[in-house]
Amino acid sequence: MSIIFVSLILLPNLSIIVQFFSESNDNWTHIKEHMLSTYITNSIILILFVGVFTALIGTSLAWLISAYDFPLRGFFKWGLILPLAIPPYIGAYTYHGMLNYTGVIQTTLRNQFEITVNQQYFNIMNMPGAIFIFVMFLFPYVFTITKAFLARQSTSLIENARILGSSSWRIYFKVVLPITRASIVAGVSLVILEVLNDYGVVKYYGIQTFTTAIFQTWFGLGDLNSAIKLSGTLMVIILGLLILERVLRGRKRFSFTTTKVKLLKPVPLKGRNKWLAFSYCMGIFSLAFILPLLQLIYWALLTYEKFLSNELFSVIGNTVFVAFFAATIITVMAIVISNFSRLHRGLTAKLFPKITILGYSIPGAVIAVGIVTLFISIDELIYSWGWTSSYILSTSVVMLIFAYIVRYLAVAYNSVESGFERIGTNFTEASRMLGNSVTQSFFKIDLKLIRGAIFGGFILAFIDILKELPLTLILRPFNFETLATNAFNYATNEMIHEAAIPSILIIIISAVAIYFFHYVLERE
Amino acid sequence: MSKKILFFSSIVLILLFLTACGGNESSSNEDELNLYTSRHYDIDDELYQQFEDETGIKVNVIEGSADELIERMKREGEQTADLFYTSDAGRLHRAKEQDLLQSVESDKLNENIPKKLSDEDQEWFGLTKRARVIVYHKDRVDPSELSTYEDLATSKWQDRVLIRSSENIYNQSLLASFIELNGRDEANEWAEGIVDNMARDPQGGDRDQAKGVVAGEGDIAVMNTYYLGGMLNSADDEEVKVAEQLDVFFPNQDTTGTHVNVSGIAVTKHAKNKENAIELIEFLSSDDVQKQFASANYEYPVNPNVEPAETLKQWGDFKEQDINLSILGENNADAVKIFNEVNWK
């Protein structure tokens, strides 16, 4: 089964891989000479800083919330996932909207206090600004995955450290960081892939990254082949990095072995520390969620009349339907593949997981080309057999849902895998020895143990699809709008006020989903 | 295992069901039209609705970026949309070059749309027009200082020019027109000069350039007319205030004329409903509809019988570049290369 799944993912990428080995043309020298070196440097700087900051913020928040008790902790548990609901490019537009010359801050200063400020201090459209945007709207990837790990992992390590008198900082650096390494890597690699894929933020902020090079080559030079070559290079680099991490991690595994899975008991914080922890969480939450949301609501109030139509409901319906449907399939596939890879030895078992990443590491627009090619040829085949009177797959939502699967399998997979990593194989082996089959043990034992990770994976995939762009834009059937395409269309036309309503709806739907799953998990 | 099998067979069934629902829509129905567009304006949707009300022909739409849609049409071969609609002549030309469009004969279109704003072989037709102009701060710049685009590259404008990144198609088309009018070498020098004169690294969209001028980061900006029109009529008072401090200058009036570009539409080579498709184009170029275009979006109508919106009329008439707009597409790749060579971000 997992072989079928993996080959499904591989198929659309094949046409890309084939192009990769095609001969290079004149443009290629131009690209190498004028684009690559600065663009690659920029990409590396971006990835490095975003990676480090999301890791620090994500794990520290997860640690605080798992290990300590302080005001609003119960809310932050799920509230800190909410920034994920804001697509980074919307965040980028919103922050620029707040800070620029006609934004709320500068106009207040100008009109109320007659202060005109130096534009440089309020300019967010540069490298540090882009890093800030990515960190704020992507850190929940690390937060969610690490939190799921900390919540159920063997409490004994941390409690022992506490008993032995280690300070909180010491525990964080000496115990928490090392044992959560797998989750951090899982989370950060999602963040990095998301950053490498982004075109909206860097394009608007005028930062030239590797992705810019890909699209300049395609749209500017009209040379899709070279663009695909560039994506292929990116793909290889990413795979290399991921494999390198695996090798470096080596045999270090921190799965628990006892049957007594205790929940980590949060220690109540007192006095100054209590408020410090609270302010830290609240500060991040405000920057990453409340402030942009307020700005969006203000814009929405300027333009809401335009949107009160029935069409909006069909758009909401479309969005939720495809996201839910695709996320479900993705989650099931993630479970099957990671279960296979976990229980089998050998090259294929180790290679499969990496293949799921492929779809996530190539810019969406490029995958879209591969998928259209695939579906057109399937359709031609079906058509030539006389089963149908016209092309049916490539003109329906099936193509889009398939594309989502290719793209976001990695998201759910990473979460599920870190769940499996946590429980190891001991329980399954025990169950097998007691005479259960692999499938039986899976349903009886594993599924129950990693339920949290599965839900986590599902939410991440669901939200990602809600806000997905390039694929939806190009692969959707006629008259099929989603909230994300709606928001994007307005934003790219510099009509940010009009983009506010669909953006807010994306945020609300994601928030409901996040809260619902949080509720389900808490009840267990 | 049986549970799993049940689960997957149900998924397959649902997929088949979805296919059945979705598949019908694009079949060649008599009273339907399939349109790929890269324009995202509310007025467009309203006009398609009007067209349906008048003729009973429903317009099915997929929006996307122009190049992605071109690629999709290429891959789809004979099973593709009837019409392709996008906001840059260069892109239309690219579709034509790839043999995706077909020539259309229509007296109405010849009457409504000036030859210069359409393809030589009638493969695409301009529907709305925009000019890329110089916008200056009323207090800080005396319009007598301004003359041509070429002048902006001289040392007089050191650190005073705001313009967005070279990744933007409007800049690419602007440079493409200079390659045609002044030759590649001069175009190259111009781009180099502008890079030297930039008040800051390119960032943001056209509206951001206007705001940058008012905020004092530079004195002049190069931008499309409809963005300033949109700001003057914005729901946000602060944007209106900014726009009111600015004025429009149409460059090169004594020489080659101001750069214009169009949004244009084309019938695809494999269109199933050619008649309907032509009917829609004729509808969109009619006096009535052109008037709506002009007032909703601050673009110039292509139809000479129709006057532009009040905001645009105040800026007055101007002389346009006298080149066929297909040139913009032909020179696009060269323009991009020049931008990269002079390191225009």
UniProtKB/TrEMBL annotation, chain B:
GO terms for cellular component: outer membrane-bounded periplasmic space. Coiled coil: none annotated. GO terms for biological process: iron ion transport. The keyword Transport applies. One of its GO terms (molecular function) is metal ion binding. Keywords: Ion transport, Iron, Iron transport, Metal-binding, Signal, Transport. It comes from the Bacteria. Gene3D superfamilies: Periplasmic binding protein-like II. Fe cation binds at residues 40, 226-227. InterPro entries: Ferric-bd. SUPFAM superfamilies: Periplasmic binding protein-like II (SSF53850). Residues 1-22 form the signal peptide. Transmembrane segments: none annotated. The keyword Transport applies. Belongs to the bacterial solute-binding protein 1 family. This is Iron(III) transport system substrate-binding protein. The lineage of its organism: Bacteria, Bacillati, Bacillota, Bacilli, Bacillales.
